């Protein structure tokens, strides 16, 4: 028998709570305790927690604030990034703000309905069909770059051609706004990837479309900064300015990225490989032989390797950067401009290597905006051993859509 004070069951099913509008001063959505207030057994946890395989020597000159924490912008303002001028600090500030917005978006219960909308067909043959979240995150980044006043052109995986923003912007930004978006419905980690170049002033007299394209097709060895943001159990911004690789973790209570892993050093040898093993029988002989060898512990490193594969490039790389080993996609699938170059710069600054299986990624000259290639990222000794097998690039892709 139903109580007189209990609403009918049908009303409970249709009940929808009223959501209050929340406009924080900083881009944060949650009221978590601040990192400075977190304690264990009465002792505050110190923030500059370099991993056991990391060195904090390059950050030793950085003065911490009273609570012991250093934000990304404080880090740059106090000389943490060698050669980082005021213009670049402004640009990084706008990029981090865009990534905070994306972090809130991918964690929102409302992205489920957005993700269920129909994909938009890709107009270019070299591009995948973008999902609605891809388009939305692309617009978030473009808006922030426009507002920064520091960007001449943005080239994105979500656009057929580069977007010219300003004639006097000193920088060029290339980006994959939401890597791994096809996994968003399953709450698998996703990420944002970006690279920053100086504008090529010698091209200023060319037509807009031409100078936009040529500025975007710079070789990876001309990068002045690159980074990725991992949206997972924590939101982590990993960045390099050519003087080491550093990770900052988002404190959702303040909206600040806090330096947590200064001067990350990838182990010279790992014990993990990350690849889609389901395609083993489509791999070339050299790659099959390499994988067979290391997982049996018969390679140059006399321990058996384990497989760890998330199918989210930023997530797989982040684990590899911290623990060592190799993250790879042997097919002509990943983009040189938006993914391979920025991530290789990060890995090299951490002491690792980025390769297409034959050559150093950063030495390659892009010839197309959406150019694809195989990508192998990881520990220096692991990549060198893999390359020694010769035939590791998969040239066929039968029976798969992606």
Salient structural properties:
15 strands, alpha+beta, five-stranded mixed beta sheet, 2 domains, Fructose-1,6-Bisphosphatase, Chain A, domain 1, eight-stranded mixed beta sheet, disordered N terminus, globular, 402 residues, D-Maltodextrin-Binding Protein, domain 2
Descriptive overview:
The chain has helices spanning 9-14, 72-77, 86-106, 111-115, 132-148, 208-216, 285-295, 313-323, 336-349, 380-387, and strands at 39-40, 43-44, 151-156, 163-164, 171-179, 190-198, 225-231, 235-240, 245-251, 256-261, 272-274, 306-307, 326-335, 353-355, 372-378. It contains ten helices and 15 strands. The chain is globular. It starts with 8 loop residues before the first helix and ends in a 15-residue tail after the last helix. With 402 residues, it is an alpha+beta fold. α3 (86-106) packs antiparallel against α5 (132-148). It folds into two domains: 59-261, Fructose-1,6-Bisphosphatase, subunit A, domain 1 (Fructose-1,6-Bisphosphatase, Chain A, domain 1), CATH 3.30.540.10; 272-387, D-Maltodextrin-Binding Protein, domain 2, CATH 3.40.190.80. An eight-stranded mixed sheet has the order 4-3-5-6-7-8-9-10, with helices on both faces. A five-stranded mixed sheet has the order 12-11-13-15-14, with helices on both faces. The longest helix has 21 residues, at 86-106. A hairpin with a 4-residue loop joins β9 (245-251) and β10 (256-261).
